[in-house]
Design goal:
Blueprint lengths: L1 E3 H4 L11 H10 L3 E6 L7 E13 L5 E8 L6 E5 L9 E5 L4 E2 L3 E2 L3 E3 L2 E3 L2 E2 L30 H4 L6 E5 L10 H12 L9 H4 L8 E2 L2 E4 L10 E10 L9 H10 L6 H13 L3 E5 L7 E5 L5 E3 L5 E3 L5 E5 L2 E5 L3 E2 L12 E8 L1 H10 L5 H8 L6 H16 L2 E10 L7 E3 L3 H6 L5 H10 L3 E4 L5 E4 L10 H12 L19 H15 L3 E2 L5 E2 L1 H8 L17 E2 L4 H12 L6 E8 L23 H9 L6 E8 L1 E3 L8 E2 L2 H14 L5 E4 L5 E11 L2 E9 L1 H6 L7 E6 H7 L15 E10 L4 H12 L3 E10 L8 E10 L8 H19 L2 E2 L2
Parallel strand pairs: 13-24, 14-17, 28-31
Antiparallel strand pairs: 1-12, 2-12, 3-4, 3-6, 4-5, 6-11, 7-8, 9-10, 15-23, 15-24, 16-23, 17-20, 18-19, 20-21, 21-22, 25-27, 26-27, 29-30, 31-32, 32-38, 33-34, 35-36, 36-37, 37-38, 39-41, 39-42, 40-41
Helix pairs in contact: 2-4, 6-7, 7-10, 8-9, 12-13, 14-18, 21-22
Subcellular location: Cytoplasm
Enzyme class: ligase
Keywords: Aminoacyl-tRNA synthetase, ATP-binding, Cytoplasm, Ligase, Magnesium, Metal-binding, Nucleotide-binding, Protein biosynthesis, RNA-binding, tRNA-binding
C-alpha cells in the first residue's frame, strides 16, 4: 500500500518536521512492514510561463512545429520549439527549463533543433507524470489555475509530494486505505485521528434520502453457506461534465498511490477506494436496463469486461446483472457494456460488500487480480459503504458539476460482530508480560473496539466492523502487544525440561545428513511437487496425492521419490556451468494407498486440544509420509591433476554413500542386482536390510539422462530412511580394539552366475565365526577357465583373535568353515 503523505496529513496530525523514514518507522512499530519510499521523479526548474507569440513552421518531413516565445517571469522571453498545436497566445503552460529532469529520467537542456535553439520544453500531462494524455500541452486554464509567471509548477501541481509504501498482511485488510493507515499512525504516535467516514466529515450528503432504484440480492449458490453480498448501496448523480479534467492534486495522489489517471469520474471512484478502503464501481446510468441483481452466473453465460476480454463465466462467479444479463464480475471488474465513457453524464454509484471467499475464487479463476478484489479478499468494512458512496457523490458534484439525485438504494445487512470475553490475566499469561488493565483497555479502544466490564474482572470486547480478524482472546492479545509495544516482550529462551531433547529418529536423521555432508555431498531442499510425466517416469503407475489447489497446474502431484527434485537441481546447476556435482536431500515423500480416500473433514480449532481419538483420526486421514534420503552424483569424483587423470563418478559412488549411511545409523546393508525402468540395466543395485528392500542405487538410463540434458553417467541413490531407522538396532555395537596382529587370507569361490555375491559373502561370514574380523569382495571374474553359467568371486578375509595371536592353521580352519557353508547353500567350489 502506497501512502501519499499529503493525503495522510488530512486524517491524522503528522508533525510538520516528520520525514518519510520517521513515518515509515512509526508504521513498522505497529506491525506493518516497510517496503519503499516513492519520491517525485522530476526536479526543477519547472515553472509557469505565458505564451507571448508563436509561428507555425512546416518541415520537410511533413511535420509542423511552433517556434514560441514564452514569458517565464524573467527579464527576457525564452524561445522554445514545440510540436503540439493545442495551445494559443495568452495560455499559461508548464515550462521545463534547462537543468530540469522529467520522469524517465529525461534531462532538459538548451539544444538546437529545426533551425532554432530551444531553451527548454513546454510539458504535457504525460511528460509531468500526471496522466497518459499526450495529445497536447497541459493548459493551466483547463485546470482552473491562473498563477503568476515563474511560479514553481512542481509545488503548484502537487508534484513535490512523496509516498511511503508498506506491506499489508492478509489479516489486516483495513490497512489498504488511507483511513486505515492514518489510524495505525495515530495508534503508533498518539497523533489525533480524524475519521473521514464520519458524518461530520462528509456533511449532509451522507444522510440525504436515496431510494427508488431496484436492487435484488438473489444468491442461490452461496459459497460455504455465506451469501455473496451483505451490503449494496447505490446513489445517482446527474448532469456531470465529462470534459472536465481531473484536478492535479487528485491525479498526483493517485499516481503516488500507484494508479494512473483515466478520467475524472473514474479517478474519483479510485480516489475514494484508496481513501476509505471501499471499492466503488460507477455505471453509465443511461446504459443500464432496469435495476440491478446480484446473482451467480448462468451456465454458458459470457461477459465482456473492461479490459476488452470476453470471459466465460463459472456457475460460482458472483455477477452484477441488469435486465440485459451480466454486466460485471462482482468485486473484481466491471463490464464494458455499462462503463463510464467520455459521453457519460448520469452516473450510478455502487458501493457493496461481497463475500471474501467468493471474490478470491473468481479473481483466481479468471486470472484477474484488481485493486478491488485485493481489498474484498481481505475483508472490507461493511459499514463504510454508505459513507463511500456519499463521498463519491460529493466529489462528482464538486468537481464534475453534477447534481445529486434522490434515486438510489440502501441494502445494509452486515453480520454483527460477536462480543469476545477477555478474561482477567489472559493477556499477560499469553505474552509473558504484565500489562495494566488501563493499557489493555486503552489499546482495544484505540483500534476501534467497544470495551465493557464483564464478570470476575473480565472485559467484554466488541471488535470494530473493519476488523473481522479479531475473533478470540489470542487475537485481542496480539493487538494489545502490538500497540503497547513489542519491545515490552522479553527475549527469553525456554528451558527444556529434564529428559527431553531430540528423539532417536531425529538424531539418526541428523547423523545421516551429517555423514554425507562430511564426505563432500551438498545438501539441498527441493519442492515436493511433480508433474504427472515425472511421477510416471520414477514411480510408474503407483498412486500419487493430487493437490486440490496446486500453486502450479503443471506440477499438481506430491512426490513419491526424492530423485525428481535432485535431478531438477542438477539441471539448474549444470546450466550455470557447474559440472562436478554431489547433491543429497533428506525429506518426506507421500505414499498413498491405491483406492483409499484421504481427508478428515473440518479441522479442529487451533486453540483447543482435539483429544486422542481425534488425533488418531487425523493421522489416519493423511497418507504415509516416510523420510527418505536421496543422493545424486555427476561429473568427476576427483579433478584432473598433474600426473593423475580425473576420476569420473559411477555406481561405486552411490554404493559408497549407502555404506556411509548404514554406518551413520549403526547397521549394514546388503546389495543385490536389481532393476528399475529409469535405471541402467546391469548397473542397478537393490539395497537390503536383512530380508527387506530399503532402497535402490544405480546409474540413470543413458537415454533418460540424455532426455533430461544430463551427462551420460548419473549415479543416484534413494533409501527409505524411516524403514532403515526402524529396523536398525537401537544400540550401536562397539568392540574393543585388539592388540594382537591380524591374519589375512583370500578365497576364490566358483558359484552359479545368478547367485548374488552378497549372499555368498554372508554365508562365509556366518561359517567363519567370531575369528573373522572383516571380509569384502575384491573380484568378480567371468571368462576363460570358468564354466559357462558360473562366475568366480574372490573375497579378502581378515582374521584376528581377541586374546591371542592366531596361527595360520586357525585362520585357515575358520576360512574353510566359511567355505563349507557357502558350498552347502550355493554349491560353491574352491577355484584352483
Amino acid at each position: 500500500m502506497r501512502v501519499p503523505i499529503s493525503w495522510l496529513r488530512e486524517f491524522v496530525d503528522v508533525p510538520e518536521d516528520a520525514t518519510a523514514e520517521s513515518i515509515q518507522a512509526a508504521l513498522v512499530r505497529v506491525g506493518l512492514e516497510e517496503e519503499d519510499i516513492h519520491r517525485a521523479e522530476l526536479t526543477g526548474p519547472i515553472v509557469v510561463g505565458t505564451v507571448l507569440e508563436f509561428a507555425d513552421e512546416p518541415q520537410s518531413n511533413g511535420k509542423t512545429i511552433r517556434w514560441c516565445q514564452l514569458d517565464v517571469g524573467e527579464d527576457e522571453p525564452r524561445g522554445v520549439v514545440c510540436g503540439a498545436s493545442n495551445f494559443f497566445v495568452g495560455d499559461k503552460v508548464v515550462v521545463s527549463l534547462p537543468g530540469a529532469v522529467l520522469p524517465g529520467p529525461f534531462p532538459i537542456a538548451a539544444r538546437k533543433t529545426y533551425g532554432h535553439v530551444s531553451d527548454g520544453m513546454i510539458a504535457s500531462s504525460r511528460e509531468l507524470g500526471l496522466g497518459d494524455d499526450h495529445e497536447g500541452i497541459l493548459r493551466l486554464s483547463e485546470l482552473g489555475l491562473d498563477p503568476d509567471n515563474g511560479t514553481d509548477a512542481i509545488a503548484l501541481l502537487g508534484l513535490d509530494d512523496y509516498a511511503v509504501e508498506v506491506n499489508v498482511t492478509p489479516d489486516r485488510g483495513y490497512a489498504f486505505s488511507i483511513r486505515g493507515i492514518a489510524r495505525e499512525f495515530s495508534n503508533s504516535t498518539g497523533a489525533s485521528f480524524h475519521d473521514p467516514a464520519l458524518v461530520s466529515a462528509l456533511g449532509e450528503i451522507v444522510s440525504e434520502p436515496h431510494s427508488g432504484f431496484s436492487v435484488v440480492i438473489n444468491d442461490e449458490a452461496p459459497i460455504r453457506g455465506r451469501v455473496g453480498a451483505s451490503t449494496f448501496v447505490t446513489r445517482v448523480v446527474r448532469g456531470i461534465d465529462p470534459s472536465r479534467p481531473t484536478p492535479t492534486w487528485m491525479a498526483s495522489r493517485l499516481r503516488l498511490a500507484g494508479v494512473r489517471s483515466v478520467s475524472l469520474a473514474v479517478d474519483i471512484t479510485n480516489y475514494v477506494m484508496f481513501e476509505l478502503g471501499q471499492p466503488i464501481h460507477g455505471y453509465d446510468l443511461d446504459r443500464l436496463s432496469g435495476g440491478l441483481t446480484v446473482r451467480r452466473a448462468y451456465a454458458g453465460e459470457t461477459l465482456l469486461t473492461l479490459d476488452d476480454q470476453t470471459r466465460s463465466l463459472n456457475a460460482e462467479d458472483l455477477v452484477i446483472a441488469d435486465e440485459s444479463g451480466a454486466i460485471g464480475l462482482a468485486g473484481v471488474m466491471g463490464g464494458a457494456a455499462t462503463e463510464i465513457s467520455d459521453a457519460t453524464t448520469n452516473v450510478l454509484i455502487e458501493a457493496a460488500n461481497f463475500d471474501p471467499v467468493s471474490i478470491a475464487r473468481t479473481a483466481r479463476r479468471h486470472k484477474l487480480p484488481s485493486e478491488a478484489s485485493k481489498r474484498f479478499e481481505r475483508g472490507v468494512d461493511p459499514l463504510v459503504a454508505e459513507a463511500a458512496a456519499a463521498r463519491v457523490a460529493q466529489l462528482l458534484v464538486e468537481l464534475a458539476g453534477g447534481t445529486l439525485d434522490e434515486l438510489g438504494s440502501s441494502l445494509v445487512n452486515p453480520t454483527p460482530a460477536e462480543t469476545i470475553s477477555l478474561r482477567a490475566g489472559f493477556v499477560g499469561s499469553l505474552m509473558g508480560v504484565e500489562y495494566t488493565e488501563a493499557e489493555i483497555r486503552d489499546s482495544l479502544i484505540a483500534i476501534g473496539a467497544t470495551v465493557g466490564d464483564g464478570p470476575d474482572g473480565s472485559l467484554e470486547v466488541t471488535p470494530p466492523s473493519w476488523r473481522p480478524d479479531l475473533t478470540d482472546e489470542p487475537t485481542l492479545t496480539e493487538e494489545v502487544a502490538r500497540l503497547v509495544g513489542y519491545d515490552r516482550i522479553p527475549s527469553v529462551l525456554p528451558v527444556a525440561p529434564p529428559g527431553r531433547g531430540l528423539s532417536r529418529e531425529q538424531r539418526l536423521r541428523r547423523s545421516a545428513a551429517q555423514v554425507l555432508a562430511a564426505n563432500g555431498v551438498t545438501e539441498i531442499q527441493a519442492y515436493p511437487f511433480v508433474s504427472a510425466a515425472t511421477h510416471a517416469r520414477f514411480s510408474g503407475d503407483a498412486p500419487a496425492m493430487r493437490l486440490a489447489n496446486s500453486l502450479d497446474a503443471e506440477v499438481p502431484l506430491l512426490r513419491r521419490s526424492l530423485l525428481p527434485g535432485l535431478i531438477e537441481a542438477t539441471r539448474r546447476n549444470l546450466s550455470r556451468g557447474l559440472t562436478d556435482l554431489a547433491l543429497f536431500e533428506v525429506g518426506t515423500v507421500f505414499l498413498p494407498e491405491r483406492d483409499k480416500r484421504y481427508g478428515s473433514g473440518p479441522l479442529p480449532a487451533g486453540n483447543v486440544h482435539p483429544g486422542t481419538t481425534r488425533l488418531v483420526e487425523l493421522d489416519g486421514s493423511i497418507p504415509p509420509q516416510p523420510w527418505h534420503v536421496g543422493a545424486l552424483f555427476v561429473g568427476n569424483r576427483s579433478e584432473k591433476q598433474p600426473g593423475t587423470a580425473a576420476v569420473a563418478v559411477s555406481l561405486v559412488d552411490a554404493l559408497d554413500a549407502a555404506r556411509q549411511l548404514a554406518a551413520a545409523v549403526g547397521t549394514r546393508f546388503r546389495f543385490e542386482q536389481g532393476s528399475h525402468p529409469a535405471y541402467h540395466p546391469g548397473r542397478t543395485a537393490e539395497i537390503y536390510l536383512g530380508d527387506t528392500v530399503v532402497g535402490i542405487a544405480g546409474e540413470l538410463l543413458p537415454a533418460l539422462a540424455d532426455e533430461l540434458d544430463l551427462p551420460r553417467v548419473v549415479a543416484v541413490l534413494e533409501l527409505d530412511l524411516s524403514a532403515v531407522i526402524d529396523q536398525s538396532s537401537p544400540d550401536v555395537a562397539t568392540h574393543a580394539i585388539s592388540s594382537f596382529p591380524a591374519a589375512t587370507q583370500d578365497v576364490s569361490l566358483v558359484v552359479p552366475i545368478e547367485i548374488p555375491a552378497a549372499s555368498v559373502l554372508a554365508a562365509i561370514e556366518e561359517g567363519a565365526g567370531s575369528l573373522l574380523e572383516h571380509a569384502y569382495l575384491v573380484d568378480d571374474y567371468r571368462g576363460a577357465g570358468i564354466e559357462g553359467g558360473s562366475k568366480s568371486l574372490t573375497f579378502a578375509l581378515r582374521f584376528r583373535g581377541a586374546d591371542r595371536t592366531l596361527t595360520a592353521a586357525e585362520a585357515s580352519e575358520s576360512r574353510l568353515a566359511g567355505v563349507a557353508v557357502a558350498t552347502e547353500r550355493f554349491g560353491a567350489t574352491l577355484r584352483e
